[in-house]
Amino acid sequence: MNKLCLRSYIKSRLLLGLTTTQIHEELTTAYGQGVVAYCTIAHWAHRFSSGRESLDDDPRNGRPLSVITQQNIEAVKDLVNDDPHISIDYIADMLDISHGNVDTILKQHLNLKKVSSKWIPHKLTSAQQQRRVDICIENLQKIESGAWKLCDIVTGDESWFYHRKIKSKQESKAWIAQGTSPPTEVRRQKFEEKTMFVIIFS
């Protein structure tokens, strides 16, 4: 999204009484998650609310020999803390420094790297986490007191296994001649055949 169009939209929605959260939700609905960072909206909303009228970047009187200053490092750090998913392009736009300098600050000065989220099977609530701790403590006390033996403990797990293996993107890559259509891989279907395996240990 063009930055001037974005700033114009933020300004007009503020005049209509919307909050920064509502503006962010509208833009996320229109353009998708992560396209417009919340901190960008909050930054320009603050400037417009403080009386700024212009949508343009501030005039530049000449840049210093190096923009990798402690002030910019701290500014980048604050932006990342506010939104860990923020893109380098948005940081560069907000702080008016180059993409390359932002990349250098992130990797060499803040020792950060961008990684994909780790998938986990379940997200436990605080109460569920505490319940697991309590059960473990209770079991340990029974073993230490002699009320239980290790052989008395039964544990198990279960997992679904699909009958058809799906190759990863890397595994499905193939060398083909120019003008040849790429191979296809059928996506996994919702009700595809699968079998649950239950394993019990005692």
Protein architecture, described:
The chain is mainly alpha-helical. The protein has two domains: 3-109, no CATH class; 126-201, no CATH class. The protein contains seven helices and two strands, in the order αααααααββ. It has helices at 3-15, 20-31, 38-49, 70-82, 88-95, 99-109, 126-145, and strands at residues 155-162, 194-201. Strands 1-2 form a two-stranded antiparallel ribbon. α1 (3-15) crosses α3. The model has no long low-confidence stretch (mean pLDDT 84).
How many beta strands in the DSSP annotation? 2
Which residues sit in consecutive blocks of at least 5 with pLDDT less than 50? none
What is the N-to-C order of secondary-structure elements (H for helix, E for strand)? HHHHHHHEE
- The strands making up the biggest β-sheet line up spatially as 1-2
Structural class: mainly alpha
Contiguous helical run count: 7
* Average pLDDT taken over every residue: 84
Integer count of domains? 2
* Inertia-based shape: extended
Distance between the termini: 59 Å
Strand fraction equals 5-15%
Q: Biggest sheet: strands, sense, closure? A: 2 strands, antiparallel
The Cα radius of gyration reads 27 Å
Helix percent reads 40-55%
Which key features would you list for this structure?
202 residues, mainly alpha
Quick overview:
With 202 residues, this protein is mainly alpha-helical. It is 44% helix and 8% strand. 11% of the residues are buried.
